[in-house]
TrEMBL record:
GO terms for biological process: transmembrane transport. This is Periplasmic binding protein domain-containing protein. Gene3D superfamilies: 3.40.50.2300. It holds the Pfam family Peripla_BP_4. Residues 1-21 form the signal peptide. Residues 29-285 form the Periplasmic binding protein domain. Keywords: Signal. InterPro entries: Peripla_BP_I, SBP_2_dom. GO terms for cellular component: cell envelope. One of its GO terms (molecular function) is carbohydrate binding. It is found in: Cell envelope. It comes from the Bacteria.
Amino acid sequence: MTLFRVVLIFAVLVCSPACLAKPGFSVLFVNPSLAGEPFWGKVQKITEEACKQLGVNIDVIYGDGNRHIQLAELKKYLDYRASPDYVILMLYPGGAEQTLTMLDNYGIKFITLEQTITGMEKEEIGFPKQRFEHWLGEIYFDNYQAGFDLAKSLHDRVKANGYKGNVNGLAINGHYGSESDKRNQGAADYFKSAGVKLQQTVHASWSKEQAYTKTKRLFKRYPNTQLIWSASDLMAMGAQTAIRQLNKEGSKVAIGGFDWLSDSLSLIQQGHLSASVGGHFMMGGWALVSIFDYHHGNKYWLNNSQITFELSSITQDNIDEYIWISNNPDWSRIDYKQFSILDKKLTQYDFSPKYLKQSKTQSVILE
């Protein structure tokens, strides 16, 4: 073999795509809740599975449901561990500026989940890449539309049950805050447009127990109630337990919430709950896909500051397509690489819970 051919082969190998590909990188996922909490535990598992498929190293820390603890745990990690290349986290109201400043000072690029900061605090931190240059962007869903869609699903169930009179409803909100208030406003606007009388709205602090207690009191005051809108599945389950114990016909009271919790999906399948709006537990995985693309040269986060998506409603009409995610689901059944736009001509991401539908011929539909 001539020297020229040897040099040529060496040059081809050096310049091949495999050799030019960037090595694996690291991500820190900040779970804002307690280890084992159903919803955020699901977000974490999906993010970890996406990392596994895409060859990304991941570490996890917990905020224990408290902004002070989350900030302290993040500071401890950054002070004493090797700095990650990227961070995925949810900001707690009251601690956003400190968190963003710390990450920016370390020069770590990060993505935030959900839009949790409003008012004066939002004005202080601004938008991604304004005050904090390493803040790549936000991934969040439309809480208003989700609240509207749940209200419609519950109203549709009342009509499907054959009820012909004026429909009366109750609403169980979470806490006094932007997330729950936007959901509740969406519901209120739907009820008004559809002629549903919203008799009363109460707050139950995302607690199943509080929702149970308050539903019992509310039904003594409003016995002619056909639907109960709830800002979470846990509170919806509390309301459902109260209705059952009051010896009401549960099938005639349409009850629903948010989050697609495993128990709530099972209750929908059994006909004890009417609807659950969700799919947002995928947002950590979607954030990871977008980071993977960015790390390998995609310009989406250079030209954009947000990714938004709509949630989907699971009802008794489509529960069979989604029930696979209720019992110990295998999140590796989802091909996270197919959501990437790295090697495609697309300029926008198409993230939607509709891709979690089970097909008779496929593990998961990826249209």
